[in-house]
Amino acid sequence: MRRRIAFACVCLVGIVSAPALARAEVPVHIRIIKGSKNGPAKMDDSLLVLKKQLSPLAYVQWTQETDEKRTMSKGKIEFFKLPNGDDVSLQLRDEQPDKVTFEVVLLARKTHNKLTVERGQRIVHQVSGEKDGSAFFLTVIVWPDAR
User: How many domains does the structure of the chain reveal?
Assistant: First the structure.
């Protein structure tokens, strides 16, 4: 009888913990870009896919600082270093079949935001204060190769 109870408990633990082990991994394309209000209008060729989102902003020059593809899982925190030395953390908080929600934390600015990105969409999020007419932005697209 004790063996049956022990076996039942082991099976129950396996069933309960199986979803925790089967965490989905989400491919993410992340860029740190710099916008500047100074000088003539110019955009790095690598950022042309973002032109529609960047054009309405007050910045006229756009350069790509970093470009990374990572795989994220729910709850895992990824860190990114801005060229000005500040750190940005990105945590996958929720995953649905066609959208994910991230939490973006900027300790230097004492802010955190939740951002939801749907499949095929890009977000552009300012992650630094403006200094000398320039600021840094984080761009994120999930499932970048599924388009």
Answer: 1
